[in-house]
Design brief:
The chain is of the alpha/beta class. It is 43% helix and 20% strand. It is found in: Cytoplasm.
Length: 161
């Protein structure tokens, strides 16, 4: 699962969107995965139900969430989407989020060993939330993904498979 390839193949970067609340923000982040055939529509419901039961466990840092659910909740293939919001939304725990990177992983192993290192590499870039929110097009986002490839988190990771 390669972050850059997933964005390109799924046409799953959506910038400058508006959401009324956290549920709509999650919907906006899952729609590209549904449209690309990576997940079934029930995947959205699974994320909402999980959030209502366990809280927004997928807020990984201030301003950024990685909404996802279990593989059996409608994941058909590995994929990512990235959505930026013009105004942040507030999640049930009171945290504000303006960047959502939705993850569809077919297994827990893909989630932990391949997806998470790439996400850490991208989001450890300086001022990444602001840079993503200000990104005006897919090329700007892809340049940030490219910049993240020098991260030590990606050493030894085979991102071509």
């Amino acid at each position: 699962m390669n972050l850059a390839r997933a964005f390109k193949e799924n046409h799953s970067i959506r910038l400058g969107l508006t959401a009324r609340d956290w549920k709509e923000a999650i919907k906006l982040s899952v729609v590209p995965l549904i449209e690309s055939g990576a997940v079934k529509e029930v995947y959205y419901d699974a994320i909402i139900e999980s959030t209502e039961e366990y809280g927004p466990y997928y807020i990984l840092m201030p301003g950024m969430a990685m909404p996802h659910a279990r593989p059996e909740a409608g994941v058909l293939r590995d994929a990512f989407s990235l959505v930026t919001l013009t105004e942040p939304v507030i999640f049930p725990d009171g945290k504000e989020v303006s960047v959502l990177l939705a993850l569809a992983a077919t297994s827990a192993d893909i989630h932990t060993s391949v997806a998470i290192p790439q996400i850490i590499a991208l989001f450890e870039l300086e001022n990444i939330i602001q840079r993503l929110v200000k990104a005006e097009n897919e090329e700007a986002v892809m340049a940030l993904v490219e910049e993240s490839k020098s991260s030590p988190y990606l050493e030894g990771l085979d991102l071509d498979s």
